[in-house]
Fold this sequence. Notes:
The complex is a heterodimer of chains A (359) and B (291). Helix content of chain A is 25%, strand content 35%.
Amino acid sequence: xxxxxxxxxxxxxxxxxxxxxxxxxxxxxxxxxxxxxxxxxxxxxxxxxxxxxxxxxxxxxxxxxxxxxxxxxxxxxxxxxxxxxxxxxxxxxxxxxxxxxxxxxxxxxxxxxxxxxxxxxxxxxxxxxxxxxxxxxxxxxxxxxxxxxxxxxxxxxxxxxxxxxxxxxxxxxxxxxxxxxxxxxxxxxxxxxxxxxxxxxxxxxxxxxxxxxxxxxxxxxxxxxxxxxxxxxxxxxxxxxxxxxxxxxxxxxxxxxxxxxxxxxxxxxxxxxxxxxxxxxxxxxxxxxxxxxxxxxxxxxxxxxxxxxxxxxxxxxxxxxxxxxxxxxxxxxxxxxxxxxxxxxxxxxxxxxxxxxxx
Amino acid sequence: xxxxxxxxxxxxxxxxxxxxxxxxxxxxxxxxxxxxxxxxxxxxxxxxxxxxxxxxxxxxxxxxxxxxxxxxxxxxxxxxxxxxxxxxxxxxxxxxxxxxxxxxxxxxxxxxxxxxxxxxxxxxxxxxxxxxxxxxxxxxxxxxxxxxxxxxxxxxxxxxxxxxxxxxxxxxxxxxxxxxxxxxxxxxxxxxxxxxxxxxxxxxxxxxxxxxxxxxxxxxxxxxxxxxxxxxxxxxxxxxxxxxxxxxxxxxxxxxxxxxxxxxxxxxxxxxxxxxxxxxxxxxxxxxxxx
Lengths: 359, 291
């Protein structure tokens, strides 16, 4: 398998599984995606959304039920995994417990018939890249979780694969290590300049690592876009919810003025920007807690008056649960001085209130 | 007077340990006591000094060769059992529709006693048995078929009765190995053959050694099938027959004990050798990381 390619093309890739009661369901439904050389793609979604299925299909660990996968002009979905030559990092590392770290890292080279000084040099280079020099002769069981993960990364990159696949590689690490290793992965990606497909359910990981994010739900792609766009302009309500738009209010549509939609509720009136065509007199408005401003000027529209029900201290600011007289709950970020029982005025910027049809 | 503080804080006696008592008593009464009794008895012969039984065994022409006769049956039977069970268990490692059926069929013989197997084999493999008649019917082989009352009869019966045991044991070892390791190996370029050689085999080696030992000990103490399917006076005069004759035909319990001790010693040597080899291999967890 050649090491350079200009694009990997997934063409209507579909994978069916037999579900409960013998009914087949599409774990992955017509995924079409083109990945360019050097690009970092994150497949993002909750568990069961088909992101790992997609990765396993690309790796060759699962056969396709439909569609095809192309590496430039070569069709690869018919090849077994050992012929594809992609490096893969598994969620539970999958290090060979009976081999030393160096043997683990060198395994792919050995399978390719690369031995001796040549292999040693490549292994040493990979070990240096993941900063594991000096651990070569240990068994995986003697390493910490973070070190094991780096061995797994070294093992995948030592074969200089055209494409690196990572299946939730950080989910078994603690919070601090996760952030450190995330930076490592980004650095290694930059140094190697290989295409990487990274599966995760963590939006922060996807946002910080990826050039493009593929948001999935129930096997179907919801949005493919750059992190900034997915974060700021989710294409539908599902993506919005997943990207941290915790406030989703169902309101009546009062007025449509181009993309500006005025919505009303019992004691709430909000104007927001339409992101999708609406399908009735009711619509959902999605707002991120960080976008809501506590205080706000009297002249502004989009003001909600509410009472603080709950305060979660968060250091720089607090996460507040505020409730309007009729019982509408909003999650808001506010100053740490706010106390339970306070009455607050909150302002929702029009551009940050996104309006979607109800789902 | 000041109260003395205890010098060392001792861990309180864990009363749950008392639960071991019945098992310990069982071992003591049914294994250790008879063993010591037999050992002492073997040094207390009817005639002669303490070692008379052992010198008698190793100088009598129909006694000492039974060690080799038994080894010649038990070693091939064990190798065949482990050797057959390994590839079949490897094929059965993934849960599939057939797995349960195949496993059930392969394991059925374990529920049959050796005597039942022997009876069946006499009918099936005998000179006028079904196999012989069938081969003659299709003119594949018309000569006499002698698979009973000789070495082969006993060997076949040892395979039939020993295989399910080896198969189940190896299957449990194989299914304990995380299949994601083989998948990881495949993404690194290992074809199925290389996956078996580099991943499964090294991780299985300690289990195979254990399986070999257990299967061997079982085969080395062969008795009913050696009598019923073999020729107990000749090529399948195994060591347990010699012990049986000493005990129940010559009523020399002391000699019989000595023979049993020799039998145990041979088993111990083989087991120790195999387990010694096992130490050369990796032993430890067979999963590939956390979680």
